[in-house]
Amino acid sequence: MTNPTARNHTALPKARILIEALPWLTRFNGKTVVIKFGGNAMVDEELKAAFAQDVVFLRHAGLKPVVVHGGGPQISAQLDRLGIASSFTAGLRVTTPETMDVVRMVLAGQVQRQLVGLLNEHGPFAVGMTGEDAHTMTAVKRHAVVDGEQVDIGFVGEITHVDPGAIQALLDDGRIPVVSSIARGEDGHVYNINADTAAAALASALDAEVLVVLTDVEGLYADWPSSEDVISQLTASELEKLLPSLASGMVPKMEGCLHAVRNGVGSARIIDGRVPHSMLLEVFTDDGIGTMIVPDAQGDGS
Ligand SMILES: Nc1ncnc2c1ncn2[C@@H]1O[C@H](COP(=O)(O)OP(=O)(O)O)[C@@H](O)[C@H]1O
Ligand SMILES: CC(=O)N[C@@H](CCC(=O)OP(=O)(O)O)C(=O)O
């Protein structure tokens, strides 16, 4: 027979964890959360399945999750298989018409389909789309800037307009939109958009409460790469001062977070996608993990 005292020993900590979530469940009830799932955090099958569980958990807990996904490593692997060279300028993929076909095929046909499949193992929730659908994201050609000079990097887009109507309709219908970072060009072409930039633009247009960015580091490191001290919280103005010191993939992430919190999003969080269920820990526990960016207090300068 089970000893009731021993049972209480395990039951009480579990109950405490659930109760810790209560104020967060209340606070986020009915709120939109945009989640960026990065290519480097999505290479492990178990982590992908845990991510899908977390997103469905958020939905059942009364939040409205929207997933925006990347797939940089998956695009590079496919280009490699096809014998097409990958190259990046200022962190953006140089996108020839041939490369754009592969980007579209991998993001919308492979990565997005996989995420939709994993989410729908839990019920009829996920609906995949790209930013081209229903004019959700419109873009113009973007140039990279290297040493102050504009460099042509092909079909890489800068978002000029977001129409959140189709995503909002899916959310109102209880669905989980899964959006690939591709936009329709004002000129009729199709453009490759950095997925962090796309997530931030959608979060602002949807008036999201939170933008969560999953990546392959613990958060924003102070003085990276010489130190790995994670900055737990910073304001928009503090982040703006740090931007010039950041490198590689952290640049579009942090620019996106800054844009989001300056355009109505309540907070942006950078968390470690390599930790299973990191999103639940971030959203529903008092301590959170990773780095949180908050808007400047009113009257605080910017
Ligand atoms: N200050 C910093 N703190 C943390 N990571 C940084 C920093 N500056 C640059 N990085 C780099 O940014 C990377 C995350 O960007 P990226 O590889 O594009 O991620 P993802 O595939 O998730 O979009 C980290 O793995 C790290 O190499
Ligand atoms: C313009 C540009 O660089 N687009 C990215 C889009 C995918 C992406 O951003 O994926 P991650 O989030 O996994 O890095 C690319 O082609 O790799």
TrEMBL record:
The lineage's top-level taxon is Bacteria
- Family matches, as CDD domains: AAK_NAGK-C
Q: In which pathway does it act?
A: Amino-acid biosynthesis; L-arginine biosynthesis; N(2)-acetyl-L-ornithine from L-glutamate: step 2/4
Q: Where is this site: Transition state stabilizer?
A: K36, K253
> Catalyses which reaction?
N-acetyl-L-glutamate + ATP = N-acetyl-L-glutamyl 5-phosphate + ADP
Which enzyme type, at the first EC level?
transferase
- Please provide the record's keywords in A-Z order: Amino-acid biosynthesis, Arginine biosynthesis, ATP-binding, Cytoplasm, Kinase, Nucleotide-binding, Transferase
Looking at the UniProt entry, the stretches that span the membrane are none
Q: Answer yes or no on keyword RNA-binding.
A: no
What Gene Ontology terms describe what this protein does at the molecular function level? acetylglutamate kinase activity
A Pfam match is: AA_kinase
Residues noted as binding substrate in the record, renumbered to the chain = G71, G72, R93, N192
Where's it found, cell-wise? Cytoplasm
EC code = 2.7.2.8
Location of the Aspartate/glutamate/uridylate kinase domain: 31-272
The record's listing under InterPro entries reads:
AceGlu_kinase-like_sf, AcgluKinase_fam, ArgB, Asp/Glu/Uridylate_kinase, Glu/AcGlu_kinase, NAGK-C
Task: Describe the function of this protein.
Answer: Catalyzes the ATP-dependent phosphorylation of N-acetyl-L-glutamate.
Family recorded in the similarity comment: Belongs to the acetylglutamate kinase family. ArgB subfamily.
NCBIfam families reported for this sequence: argB
This chain belongs to the protein called Acetylglutamate kinase
